[in-house]
User: Fold these one by one.
Assistant:
Number 1:
Amino acid sequence: MTLVTGGAGFIGSHVVDALLAEGHRVRAVDAFLPAAHRERPDYLDPAAEWVEGDLRDPDVAARAVAGVGAVCHQAAMVGLGVDLGDLPDYVGHNDLATAQLLRALAVAGFGGRLVLASSMVVYGEGRYTCPEHGVVAPAPRRPADLDAGRFEPRCPACGRSLESGTVPEDARLDPRSVYAATKLAQEHLCAVFGNETGVPVTALRYHNVYGPRMPRDTPYAGVASIFRSAFAAGRAPRVFEDGAQRRDFVHVRDVAHANLLALTAPEPVPGPLNVASGTPRTVLDMARALAVACDAPPEAAPVVTGEWRAGDVRHVVASPRRSAEALGFTAGEDFAAGMREFATAALRG
């Protein structure tokens, strides 16, 4: 029996489907919080055993882990949120819930493998190289620079322009938002649990995931969902900064496949792994591709606004080499086809 936490969510539900398709027995737990589910999803496969409850409740956590041989921990509150007023909710749903889950596993004598949904946000800014000082960690961007349209980070030692590269798993971690800090705390909690119990822990650091069942336009939704909602309403999506921010957009079915590999590989692959397509694109590239897929009229073409959000980073794209070598994972979904599917796919209410 494999436990999938957050099994009714965007990524978790695809993991449930992937496991069931391979003949695995699945138990899925989800709190069905109103912020994530305005209504109960109609895509929940009855072949799974569904447990409704909040993992912050020790009784729910104990019931969820009873008799399981593997755990895929997807449950989390996601997105940058609204403001620091969200801080207790992020810590509660992401870190306290993870702590209760790990305690329940310890009490149950769990001896399987644990796969954690982590995120590229733990890196903060991506990897940058200065022509004089080599690999450097840029300081957080200053509001005055952002207001003036100076979006690119500079070398903290000499102020030169930096070249952006791909981030390996051993890069310095530097979370820049409350959400990012709670995801890194999840990694640390699970690593401590693994060290104490001998349970192998794989932390999959997702990059920008898109696809069917994404939540609709909310402060907690991903940028692809926000743009898709704008097109559906006949509005031009607002692209922040100059649109040249580089990201890696990876399809949710590829992410589900990475989880399946991590759960079922002949030998566990402990440690962090980037889960990405390996093909960086700018946010404006994605917005334009989605506009084509949505057949948006000229008046709904993406608008570059120059606005910026605290907590956003400029460029973060991954090296997928370790996940390919250690896990055998390579993203297989075509981006243009994925955007066409996403343009009409049902989003989560």
Number 2:
Amino acid sequence: MSKKKAYDFVVLGAGSAGCVVADRLSEHPDAQVLVIEAGGTEIGPNVENPSVWFTLLGSDIDWGYTTVPQDGLNGRSTYEPRGKIIGGSSQLYLMMHIRGHPSDYDNWAYNGCPGWSHRDVLPYFQKLEDQEDHTSDWVGHGGPLSVINAKDHAPNPLSKSFIDGCLELGYPATDDFNGPQMTGAGWHHVNIKDGKRHSAAVAYLLPALQR
């Protein structure tokens, strides 16, 4: 009878959070970490290619969830795509790098969750980011997750026309939707590196496998 292998930690699900947890746990030199993922481990070319993100919806890497019927939608259910692959939904989403609004976190702290105010969580956002431009003191540099500005990488001329139209109509401009001025019109920051989607699997899990 073979001897069972023991692990110090078992991570169930290699989604966005699971990849980060596995990476951090494996930093301990003596830790044995087991990661279990229901989806596949192969990151296909259509996952890496930012321009064909829409082909992933309803594909084999999508759990294809739907909500329960919603009273506010006259009893309709909505489609909720979620990633079934290492990296989870970070392999499926549109790559826009968006934090919550500061008031969301401050409200959590106000309602009894100490340590979750915007001031408390901001250093952790900064720690994970490697943003190529510097739009404010809120951004992070040198972290594992690539954050680039769409306007600096083959910007879509239709997007530029749309933004110009918003500014002409008097909407405020914003340089970063994760900065102090979160409302307005501007270019999004996106999780792309070297022309490819930069998911939690690529940023966290794959480097951790070397340990």
